[in-house]
Amino acid sequence: MSAGPDLRGKICLVAGASRGVGRGIAQGLGEAGATVIVTARSSETGPRTEGRPETIEDTARAVDAAGGEGHHYLCDHTSERAVDTLVHWVLRRFGRIDVAVSSVWGGNEGYDGERYADGAAWGTPFWRRSAEPFSEFFAGGPYPALLLARAVAPAMVSARTGLLAFVSFDTDGAYLGDIFYDLAKATTNRLARACAEELGPHGVTALGLSPGFVRTERAVAIGHADRATESPLYAGRALAALAADPGVAARAGRILHAGDCAAEYGFTDIDGSRPPRFRVSPEEV
């Protein structure tokens, strides 16, 4: 890509941006010159998820360093009131929201690379484990995505423009290897489709973004970095390219792969490589 996407003047909101893919998306939007409000539960001024060191303030500074304008806002995205308050604050301060991204994912909290907090191993047959943890998977991904969508939709519908993106994982190609993970991602994917159907007539585009095996801070911490195919910034550059595409509405409701976007729009990962679409194999599940 000879020239990257230009999102100068655009107001973007990225939920779940203290680390991982959310941080990468915030940075990718910052590279394109956007104003990016980054939100999550982990802050320098309060508790941090699982005691991890990454914070929303870190991400806001990373957006600045990338060339954008970063702002941070502490928010519990499992609370409808908190999400509504966040969106009202953004609209009062910036006047609109052009791009909203849900990258909230708490389903892997407590996972050490082999077992979840309740002692169940990844991929344990569903009849050999309690169903109770599924509520945590749902609350850690699809539910926050729905809360963000319903909060930003009125402003986007009123403006008759906007992009709403859900970070998920494509479930069409194969079973993802763990019943709770697979169901949570499938629900998020269906949410993208449903939002696209309801928002499309009002000029708003909703879609899903499926990264590969991302080299997140958590992946490094649990010893899975060698299995990763790409950095968090790869998904960020994909989202920035989509946000700058005047024809993005044609992709409404679809689950788009970061690797496919790279091939189409011409961007690369942070190391100059261009990983192809990630495909689940027996080794990954």
Explain this structure to me?
This protein has 285 residues and is an alpha/beta fold. The protein contains nine helices and seven strands; from the N terminus they run E-H-E-H-E-H-E-H-H-E-H-E-H-H-E-H. The protein has a single domain (11-214, 247-265), classed as Rossmann fold (3-Layer(aba) Sandwich). Strands 3-2-1-4-5-6-7 form a seven-stranded parallel sheet, sandwiched between helices. Helix 1 runs parallel beside helix 2 and helix 3 packs parallel to helix 5. The longest helix is centred in the middle third of the chain and has 21 residues, at 179-199. The mean pLDDT is 93.
Query: Might you state the CATH topology name?
Result: Rossmann fold
Number of domains: 1
- Overall helicity: 25-40%
Give the number of DSSP strands: 7
Largest sheet entry: 7 strands, parallel
> What CATH architecture label applies?
3-Layer(aba) Sandwich
CATH class: Alpha Beta
Q: What fraction strand?
A: 5-15%
Average pLDDT, rounded to a whole number, is: 93
Cα-to-Cα separation, first versus last residue: 34 Å
Which series of helices and strands comes N to C? EHEHEHEHHEHEHHEH
Global shape:
globular
- Uncertain stretches of 5 or more adjacent residues: none
Q: What's the CATH H-level superfamily name? A: NAD(P)-binding Rossmann-like Domain
Number of helices: 9
**Helix vs. strand class:** alpha/beta
Radius of gyration: 18 Å
Strand order of the largest sheet: 3-2-1-4-5-6-7
